[in-house]
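Our platform keeps sequence and structure together, in a single record for each protein. Such a record has a labelled line for the sequence and another for the backbone structure tokens. The tokens are whole numbers drawn from a learned vocabulary of local backbone shapes. The remainder of this section carries one protein's record, kept here as part of the documentation:
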Amino acid sequence: MFASKRLGKELVKLQGPLAPGLTLVSAPDFKEWQMDIRVLDPNPLYLNKIYRLRFRFSQKYPIEAPEVIFLSLPPTSTNTSSFSSTSTSTPSSSIHNSAAAPIDLTSTSQPASNHPTQPPPTQPPLPDNGAREIPIHPHIYSNGIICLDLLGSQGWSPVQNVESIAMSLQSMLTGNTRDERPPGDGDFVRRNVKGPRDIDFIYEDNTV
């Protein structure tokens, strides 16, 4: 009951403007949600790419962290559509959100101009055929499982929420310069049978 109440409040907020680069793709119930994230800085590892996050919630949320992984998805169409901070693609899911373009509030103190008001800048649209890949990162396994203390029992705090998790992962990608998977990725993916919350990760490197 508490999880549903908390998620209901979060959903109302997510239906408003989101942080730039985030889009709520689907939230059909209080068990599983999906979000798209885009790295806004010109990091060549993630330039012009969109990634899909899957959130799964237990009845103990937000006392217990959600299960969060990246999804790999095939193309859904040959047509392209736009993804930006002000517009979203149109998947078959029920809820779509976008962040409003930033407004320069300092402009109100400037002298009036005879030129027509120009619209605020937005992020350029990206071609989007629906395909999603697992981002390359030293803390992200090729099956989408994420090694991040924020998502573990030791690092999790109930003050976190879906949007803050997505922003943390977006920031984690933005600051990464290493084109590599975690050590032992192939063996881990072949052998692991545990859910992300049940894996005892050792968090040794917080610099990436």
Notes: Confidence is low (pLDDT under 50) at residues 81-116. Strands lie at 22-26, 32-38, 50-56, 67-71.
